[in-house]
Each structure stands twice: as structure tokens, then as C-alpha cells.
């Protein structure tokens, strides 16, 4: 799968923070059941790598690592079975390592210089982060104009209320957000319902 395939699998990529390993599988099951198979597990908690391993056992789940900020994180994420990686920003060492390891990579960008650094590396698919704080849809529209070959996944402040607007902009293939995967004990029926609503954003 390429990063483009991953971005086109579902309209929303859940941004997941797992505090308790017990939550991992039920959360993955509920999200997949609701129609969101692409799961971004952030490397922000001690159990994140084990959560990636556990979630990868759920049928239909395509699990990746988020908050990957350097080559060491990348190696651990790949070792845990991540099928893609997401980073909040783009550095040359991380970009080169992801390309070398041939792992689908979605790096964060917030300005034209970031995009140009990505293009230099051969990357064209980016996370626009932090989407709302960096200026929202008007900012992405302005930024996307000179870079017609690029596609985006806005993340950061995206919600059920504003996701449809982002998705209506052609260069946006999907959005990322934590609203579909609340932290804490997992209410599978509720998460499945949140996933269903998110999945229906693109009819
Ligand atoms: C993050 O890295 O936490 C993501 O940007 C998620 O942002 P959100 O919580 O605003 O969806």
C-alpha cells in the first residue's frame, strides 16, 4: 500500500493515544467495525508500541505509528509492525530513513518551505498540521495552490463539525482526528457509532 492508498481508504484517520494496553484491541475492533480501518497510534505513551502490536491482530485493521519524530522512533515503529508512519513535521533524516525503509510516510507540513523540503525528497502526500491553528481551510487552500501535485490530510482541531468542509477541498484525501477515539475506558458501541458518523462524511 502506498501512502496515497492509505489516505484514500477512509475519510478519517483516528489519532489514537493508548494509555492502557487493555484498551488497544477493543478500540481497534470498534473503529474497524464502524468503517475506519486506518489507525494511527501515537508514540506518546509507554504502551504505544505494544498497542500497535495488539491492534495489528484485529482483522481488517491497518495500523501505523504517529508522533514519529526521528529515526529511532521509526525503527521501533517498524519493528512493532507499523504499516505506515506519521510525523508532526518533516526533517531530512527522517524523510530519508522512511524512504530507505520503503514505509508509507505521512509527514507534517505547515508552510511552503516544509512542502518544498518534502518535494526535494520525492514526497507529495502530507499531513497539514496543526490544521486549525495554522490557519484552517483558507490557509491550506493558499498553500496548496502552488503545489498542484500535492495531497493533504489536515489534522489538529478537525472535528465532526468541520471535517466535511475540509474533505470537500479536492487536494484533501482524508482528515485526521482524535475525536473518534476518546481516551480512557472503551465503550465499543459508542466508538463504533463515532466511527460510523466519521465514515459517512464521504457518502
Ligand atoms: C494530534 O497530534 O494530537 C493530532 O493532531 C490530533 O489532534 P486533535 O486532537 O485536534 O484531533
TrEMBL record:
Top-level lineage group: Bacteria
- Parts forming coiled coils: none
Q: Where are the transmembrane segments?
A: none
Q: Which reaction does it catalyse?
A: 2-dehydro-3-deoxy-6-phospho-D-gluconate = D-glyceraldehyde 3-phosphate + pyruvate
User: Its annotated pathway?
Assistant: Carbohydrate acid metabolism; 2-dehydro-3-deoxy-D-gluconate degradation; D-glyceraldehyde 3-phosphate and pyruvate from 2-dehydro-3-deoxy-D-gluconate: step 2/2
Q: Which Pfam families match?
A: Aldolase
Instruction: Kindly state which keywords UniProt assigns to this record, in alphabetical order.
Output: Carbohydrate metabolism, Lyase, Schiff base
- Recall the GO molecular function terms of this protein's record: (R,S)-4-hydroxy-2-oxoglutarate aldolase activity; 2-dehydro-3-deoxy-phosphogluconate aldolase activity
As recorded in UniProt, its EC number(s) are: 4.1.2.14
The record's family statement is: Belongs to the KHG/KDPG aldolase family.
Q: Which NCBIfam families match?
A: eda, PRK05718.1
The UniProt subunit note reads as follows:
Homotrimer.
What's the protein name?
A: 2-dehydro-3-deoxy-phosphogluconate aldolase
Recorded name of the encoding gene: eda
Amino acid at each position: 500500500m502506498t501512502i496515497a492508498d492509505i489516505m484514500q481508504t477512509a475519510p478519517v484517520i483516528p489519532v489514537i493515544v493508548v494509555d492502557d494496553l487493555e484498551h488497544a484491541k477493543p478500540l481497534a475492533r470498534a473503529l474497524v467495525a464502524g468503517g475506519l480501518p486506518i489507525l494511527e497510534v501515537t508514540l506518546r505513551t509507554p504502551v504505544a508500541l505494544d498497542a500497535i502490536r495488539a491492534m495489528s491482530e484485529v482483522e481488517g485493521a491497518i495500523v501505523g505509528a504517529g508522533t514519529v519524530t526521528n529515526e529511532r522512533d521509526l525503527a521501533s515503529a517498524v519493528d512493532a509492525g507499523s504499516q505506515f508512519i506519521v510525523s508532526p513535521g518533516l526533517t531530512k533524516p527522517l524523510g530519508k530513513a522512511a524512504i530507505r525503509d520503503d514505509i508509507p510516510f505521512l509527514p507534517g507540513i505547515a508552510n511552503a518551505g516544509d512542502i518544498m523540503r518534502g518535494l526535494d525528497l520525492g514526497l507529495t502526500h502530507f499531513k497539514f498540521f496543526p490544521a486549525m491553528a495554522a490557519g484552517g481551510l483558507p490557509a491550506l487552500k493558499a498553500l496548496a495552490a502552488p503545489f498542484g501535485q500535492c495531497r493533504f490530510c489536515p489534522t489538529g482541531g478537525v472535528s465532526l463539525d468541520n471535517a466535511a468542509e475540509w474533505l470537500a477541498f479536492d487536494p484533501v484525501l482524508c482528515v485526521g482526528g482524535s475525536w473518534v477515539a476518546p481516551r480512557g475506558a472503551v465503550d465499543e458501541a459508542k466508538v463504533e457509532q463515532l466511527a460510523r458518523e466519521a465514515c459517512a462524511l464521504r457518502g
